[in-house]
Design a protein that fits this description.
Pfam family, one: ANT
GO molecular function: DNA binding
Number of domains: 2
Oligomer: single chain
InterPro entries: Ant_C (IPR005039)
Radius of gyration: 27 Å
Protein name: Antirepressor protein C-terminal domain-containing protein
Order of helices and strands: HHHEEEEHHH
Number of helices: 6
Organism: Porcincola intestinalis
Shape: rod-shaped
């Protein structure tokens, strides 16, 4: 009988240790999910649009100008400029990232002129997202979500420190936000 109790206690300890280890893994996975959520939301948002996107629109997503984005892409060896149009370097052509479109411009003297511009596909937009992220640029939406997640984490921490009392939460949150 004593031997059976020893075996049962050993199994309880082993199961308890495994539960503790799994709980740690669950907590780590929750952190990973929280960090990936803004990216998933952003990519879902852009990939569900079938239309072409101007560089200006993409740049605004990142809080920068189209001129700045084009210069960065040029500096990083992604594109070059020919006859007032940005063209992808050979290794990026044929990937389905961009399309050239023509725009008719009526001059003040009545002449009709056709200009070509590069527009990005949703696949190209996703490519730029990964590229810009690797260079430390995040979309404004993702930057704001990071701020909201940080604020939420601070509020949760303040709540747990206070033992769940509302007044202490307000004080702890107000003090921790500076």
């Amino acid at each position: 009988m004593a031997r059976a109790l020893q075996l049962a206690n050993a199994q309880v300890k082993e199961l308890s240790w495994q539960c503790s280890r799994l709980d740690g893994q669950i907590q780590e996975q929750k952190k990973q999910i929280a960090s990936l959520r803004p990216k998933a939301v952003y990519l879902d948002m852009i990939l569900h649009s079938p239309s072409l996107v101007l560089t200006t629109q993409i740049a605004k997503d990142y809080g920068i100008s189209a001129i700045r984005l084009n210069r960065l892409l040029h500096e990083w060896g992604i594109q070059y400029k020919r006859r007032e149009q940005w063209i992808l370097y050979a290794q990026y052509q044929g990937q389905g990232y961009t399309c050239s479109t023509s725009v008719e411009i009526r001059r003040s003297d009545g002449r009709l002129e056709v200009k070509y511009q590069t527009e990005w596909t949703q696949k190209g937009r996703a490519f730029l997202y990964q590229l810009l992220k690797s260079k430390g640029y995040l979309p404004v939406v993702e930057q704001q979500m990071g701020i909201m997640e940080t604020a939420g984490a601070n509020l949760l921490l303040a709540f747990s420190v206070s033992g769940g009392h509302g007044e202490e939460v307000k004080e702890a949150h107000a003090g921790g936000s500076e």
